[in-house]
């Protein structure tokens, strides 16, 4: 079997979503699903025709079975160690108002938090065309941090480019610890994705997003992609800066939009497109993901991309 185009590693969790807006305590039913930043990206890539593998550690339980089944069904290769002594993590998704989503995570002592360097398939990483990481995984535990550092070392030794979504999570670590990690790996990163606030944690406060991007570039990242939500996005490289406006949509669920954005950019980048061209698809896939309930369910396939500009609401 040849190596995948992209390898990513990280936590995925069982997801329970309240079936209607309102307090979770009064929700009579909940929908069962799964999600996680890196597995969301993996599904987004697979739907865009990219061969992708996902590594992790899952409980030897029904939750782990659910995650493996969903990923395999989406065409994602799965290289996950099953842990008989720790459960698969859980997230509860509450829509307190029609326009507000709150997500609560139960990951302490989870199988994913016990992931270590020994769980990595080094040959899979070394044979890939890209290693994608997020800032969530190293924040889960010291063993997860070491696993990420080991994955980076394997990729660098094999000449595999590295993509990093800063993906800062305040509940997992403080800004100082996150900044220290970002600074320690930025010189190894080829493409970095960040929101304005995340870029400020990594590069220092600035009122101007392009200054933040220039600082990240100066720290070692060859390509810096800044995600700005409704303000669009821009990419900075040695060749200059290119920006793209956000698409006018009425969002249904914005959770996972950043992961779909990353998948769109990486898919186009791996096809040989320029950073400007990759950014156009990233904005489109990110917008698409907001048009359906779920963390990854709305990620588009290439054949569906034209639907955002369709004038006919009925397709026959």
UniProtKB/TrEMBL annotation:
<dbReference type="InterPro" id="IPR050306">
    <property type="entry name" value="PfkB_Carbo_kinase"/>
</dbReference>
<dbReference type="InterPro" id="IPR029056">
    <property type="entry name" value="Ribokinase-like"/>
</dbReference>
<keyword id="KW-0067">ATP-binding</keyword>
<keyword id="KW-0418">Kinase</keyword>
<keyword id="KW-0808">Transferase</keyword>
<dbReference type="InterPro" id="IPR011611">
    <property type="entry name" value="PfkB_dom"/>
</dbReference>
<protein>
    <submittedName>
        <fullName>Sugar kinase</fullName>
    </submittedName>
</protein>
<dbReference type="InterPro" id="IPR002173">
    <property type="entry name" value="Carboh/pur_kinase_PfkB_CS"/>
</dbReference>
<dbReference type="GO" id="GO:0016301">
    <property type="term" value="F:kinase activity"/>
</dbReference>
<keyword id="KW-0547">Nucleotide-binding</keyword>
<comment type="similarity">
    <text>Belongs to the carbohydrate kinase PfkB family.</text>
</comment>
<feature type="domain" description="Carbohydrate kinase PfkB">
    <location>
        <begin position="6"/>
        <end position="296"/>
    </location>
</feature>
<dbReference type="Pfam" id="PF00294">
    <property type="entry name" value="PfkB"/>
</dbReference>
């Amino acid at each position: 079997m040849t190596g995948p185009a992209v390898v990513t590693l990280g936590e995925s969790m069982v997801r329970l979503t309240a079936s209607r807006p309102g307090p979770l305590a009064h929700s009579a039913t909940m929908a069962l699903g799964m999600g996680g930043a890196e597995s969301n990206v993996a599904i987004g890539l697979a739907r865009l025709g990219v061969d992708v593998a996902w590594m992790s550690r899952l409980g030897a339980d029904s939750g782990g079975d659910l995650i493996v089944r969903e990923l395999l069904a989406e065409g994602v290769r799965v290289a996950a160690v099953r842990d008989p002594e720790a459960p698969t993590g859980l997230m509860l998704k509450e829509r307190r108002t029609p326009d507000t989503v709150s997500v609560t995570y139960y990951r302490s002592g989870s199988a994913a938090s016990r992931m270590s360097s020994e769980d990595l398939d080094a040959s899979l990483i070394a044979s890939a065309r890209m290693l994608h990481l997020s800032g969530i995984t190293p924040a889960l535990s010291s063993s997860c941090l070491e696993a990420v550092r080991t994955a980076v070392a394997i990729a660098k030794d094999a000449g595999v480019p590295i993509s990093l979504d800063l993906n800062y999570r305040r509940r997992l670590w403080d800004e100082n610890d996150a900044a220290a990690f970002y600074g320690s790996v930025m010189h190894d990163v080829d493409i970095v994705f960040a929101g304005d606030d995340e870029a400020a944690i990594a590069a220092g406060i600035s009122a101007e997003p392009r200054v933040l991007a220039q600082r990240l570039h100066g720290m070692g990242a060859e390509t810096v992609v800044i995600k700005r939500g409704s303000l669009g996005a821009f990419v900075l490289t040695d060749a200059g800066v290119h920006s793209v406006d956000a698409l006018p949509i009425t969002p249904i669920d914005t959770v996972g939009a950043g992961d779909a954005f990353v998948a769109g950019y990486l898919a186009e980048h791996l096809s040989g497109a320029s950073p400007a061209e990759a950014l156009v698809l990233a904005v489109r896939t990110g917008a698409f993901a907001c048009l359906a309930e779920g963390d990854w369910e709305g990620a588009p396939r290439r054949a569906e991309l034209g639907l955002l500009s369709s004038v006919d609401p009925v397709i026959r």
